[in-house]
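Hi support team,

I submitted a single chain yesterday and got back a structure, but I'm not sure I'm reading the token output correctly. Could someone confirm the output below corresponds to the sequence I sent? I've pasted both exactly as they appear in my results page.

Thanks,
R.
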Amino acid sequence: MLAREAHLRKNSLDKDVEMAPTRDGYGMGLVELGEKNDQVVVLCADLSESTRTSKFRDRWPERFVQMGIAEQNMATVAVGLALQGKIPFAATYAVFCPGRNWDQIRVSACYNMVNVNFAGAHSGISVGPDGATHQALEDIAITRVLPNMTVLAPCDMEETRKATLAAADIKGPVYLRFTRSASPVFTSENTIFKVGKAQIFRRGDDAAIVAAGPIVHIAMLAADQLVEKGISCRVINSPSIKPLDEETIERAARECGAVVVGEEHQQAGGLGGAVAELLAKTRPVPIEFVGMPDSFGESGEPEQLMSKYGMDVTGIIKSVRKAVKRKM
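Hi R., thanks for writing in. Yes, this is the structure output for that exact sequence:
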């Protein structure tokens, strides 16, 4: 086992690691913010249990707005509240926010540089049985392209809590992405989270795996297997997709000579696109992409879908081997 820079839980790669949905961290973060600042308000589009905004609603019902199934109205109302000095957090499924209300986010929030926070729950293929209509695999792409927008995709429940706290202090609009299914909680309270920064979770020099969301833990497991086969991987957690930690990723490309990007998102336009755009300009190296291969998802158990579309340990190992072979 190679040394890690970040402070991770001691049992972070064990089978008995704690499991929890990243959305739980969003609910926890909202409650912490509500206790610290009475200007924090929360909006939801008829999914308060699913988005965990119910935790805030139960504590401060007077600061909670149930918008019903009206995502476009929710975005506009959130912007209005922000312009009056409130700190709004608006949440629903990611296929609806930013999917259905992209125009309101673009014009009302981003064009006017408004301090408003949008949260997209149930992102990625691991939504599972809900199927293609509810598996948001394009949300990073459509938010990352917007001027003034910050895009965050934390890797576990604890990091989601920290990202939610950080979002309240960011100038301009924020998109915060989290998942439905339970995933390993492998970061600790001492793991550093900072907007615009990535963290090195594992050292290695043969290839760098840059990932975001719960797939980061899968990358750690893949790196453990690869080192036994003589390939050492640097695993980089990149929860801040915009702004991107260009320095850390450029250094990894320079020192490792090959990069693999992993995410529960279309291979086009997400974190992979951001990394490829950066390295094409500054440090061209072989890059492989682990993500959705230009396809809609389908119904199934999360593990089955992750395996089918190559977003599991086996898929990452194959991509790393391919990237390493290409640099020779």
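A quick pointer for reading it: The chain has a mean pLDDT of 95. Let us know if anything else looks off.

Best,
Support desk
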